[in-house]
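Course assignment 3, question 2. Fill in each field.
Student: A.L.
Task: Predict the tertiary structure for the chain below.
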Amino acid sequence: MAYLEPLLELVLTQNRQRPEPVPETVILRLVDKLEPPSIIESHGLELHC
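Answer field:
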């Protein structure tokens, strides 16, 4: 499993550049609901910082 979480500012910037951007309130609501996968949902763990 690979879990990548981009910086929120990057997501918002890229969204603004879309021909039809998603409302920022929708993105912010989804960020609040975001639950990263837990270790029990994977076969192994590797941290790359």
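Instructor remarks: The mean pLDDT is 90. The longest helix spans residues 24-33.
Grade: pending
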